[in-house]
Amino acid sequence: MNLQEYQAKTILSERGIRVPAGQVAETPEEATAAAEAIGGDGWVVKAQILAGGRAKGKIKGQELKGGIRSVTNLVNVGTESRSMLGRNLITSQTGTEGLPVTRVYVEQAMQVDNEIALMLVVDEASQDMVLLLSAGGGTGVESSAMENPDSMMRVSVSVEHGVDSESLEVALDQLQLTGSGLDSLRNMIDRMVSIARELDLTLLEINPAGLVGEEYVALDAKFIADDNALYRQPTLVDLDAQDDASSSRRRASRDGFNYIPMHGDIACMTVGAGLSMATLDTLVQFGGRPANFLDLPPDSKVNRVTSALELLLGSPGIRCLLINVFGGGIMRCDTVSDAIQIVNNVRPFRVPVVVRLAGTNADLANRRLREGMPGLALVPHLAEAARLSVQLAESGKTADPQQPESWLRKMMQRAGVTSGEGRD
C-alpha cells in the first residue's frame, strides 16, 4: 500500500521528524487559503499522485511546467493549482497517459543548505532492512546512483536493534557529511527505523532531506506498507480509504483478487498470477499496452468474476477487453462465461471483447458465449487473442457483443480468427 506525500508527512511530523508546514487542497481556492494560513513569502505547490519524478514531469497539455512549482505570491498559488487540478500529470513512472491530479499539497518554501537522500528498504536477501544514503538527494537520485555507484552508501539495519552505528559513521564520512546538522540527521534516521518497524513499512524514503539551519527537514516522503500487515495497521487503512487513487485497489482487495492498474488501453482478466504475467508479456510483444494486472484466484465464483469485470469496464481509457482463462481443478470456464453474460445483461459491453477459454468445461462455456453473445471474439490460443486485442484496441472503435458489426468481423478475419470460433 502506498501513501500520498501529504499523508506520509503527517505521520513523520507526528513522530518527531520535522517537515515544512503544509496543507492539502482540492480546489484553487483551498490552495490559496492554505498558503495564506501557512504564511511567509514563498510556497511550493505539489501535485499529489502515487508516482515519482513529479518535478521533471509535465501536466498533460502543458509542455513547460511540471508537477512541483515554486511561487512567491498568493495569486500564483491559486493559478498554479488550477492548472494542475483535474488534469493528468505525466512522469517517468506513470506511462504516457499520466495520473489524474485530484489534490495539491501547498507547503512552506524553505532555504536549504544541503540535500541528502535517505531510503530505508527491506532487504530480501538478509530478511532485514537496509539504509541507503546518497549525497545527491532530490530529483534523479536513482540515475545518479547508476552512473556513480559510489555515491550511494549502504548501511545495515536491524529491525530489532536499529542502525549499525559504526557503519553509519563510515557512510557519513565517505559522503563528506560533517559539521552542523549531523546529530539531527542521526536522529532522523533512528526515527525512520522506528516508524518503519511500527507501521510495517517495506519502504520509507525521505528524498530529499534538506539541511535548514542546523536541522534536517523531510522535504519529500514516500511510504510503502506491507499489504499483508494492514490488519494490524488501522491508521494506514484509514488513510488509504481517503485516497481516491486507491479505490480500485481497495475494491479488488475486498473482493478477493489482485489488481494493479498499468495505464494502457487493453484491460485483462486472467486466473493465476503466472498466466496474468504471460498475458501481459504477450500483449507487449504484439505492440499492445496492458491496462492492468488482474489475477483471479482459482476458486473464484461467479460473483467474484462479475466484480472483476465491472471493475475493468469502469476503468477510464479502455479500448479492448481480453479475457484469458485456463480452467483447472476447481476453476471452471463456464463460471467465467456465466459472469460475462450476467455483466453484459446489466450493462452491455461497449468495447471489443476477446475471450480465450481452455480447460475445465471450456466446450460448454464457449458454446454458451457463441449462442448468447455472437459478437464476442472467441479464440483458441493466447497468441491469437493478444494479436487480435491489439488490433481492436488500435482501431479505436467500440462494439456491442449482441450485434456483430462488419468492422469487427473484418478485424478478426484479418487476424485469422472467426467470431465465436472457440476451438480447444
Task: Kindly describe this structure.
The protein is of the alpha+beta class and 424 residues long. Helix content is 37%, strand content 24%. The strands form four sheets. Strands 8, 9, 10, 11, 12, 13 and 14 form a seven-stranded antiparallel beta sheet that branches. It has a six-stranded mixed beta sheet with strand order 15-17-16-18-19-20, sandwiched between helices. Helix 2 (28-38) runs antiparallel to helix 3, helix 8 runs antiparallel to helix 10 (302-313) and helix 10 packs across helix 11 (333-346). The relative contact order is 0.09.
How many strand elements?
A: 20
Rough shape?
globular
Q: Give the radius of gyration.
A: 25 Å
Which range best describes the helical content: under 10%, 10-25%, 25-40%, 40-55%, 55-70% or over 70%? 25-40%
Provide tags for this entry.
424 residues; alpha+beta; 20 strands; 37% helix; globular; disordered C terminus
